Amino acid sequence: MHKKVKVKPNSRIQKIEEEADGSLTVHLKSPPIDGKANQELIKVLAEKFNVPKNSIIIKSGFNSRQKLIEINP
């Protein structure tokens, strides 16, 4: 399964919002430095979709706020 994800780092609270088009907006507490926000994103999505962290792959947008995520069950 592929998901478009918009990441908002340095947020006060950690939450996931589902948009009308099926994409996700993910608010993360981590800063976008040294991949910390990407690591937190993988952890949060793994918990939401109830899959192991190694099942989630950032396909594109590693250094961007707009990402394409692949989730393998």
UniProtKB/TrEMBL annotation:
InterPro entries listed in its UniProt record: DUF167, YggU-like_sf
Signal peptide: none
Domain of life: Bacteria
Pfam families: DUF167
Any Gene Ontology CC annotation: cytoplasm
HAMAP family linked to this entry: UPF0235
Similarity section: Belongs to the UPF0235 family.
Protein name: UPF0235 protein PCC6912_59030
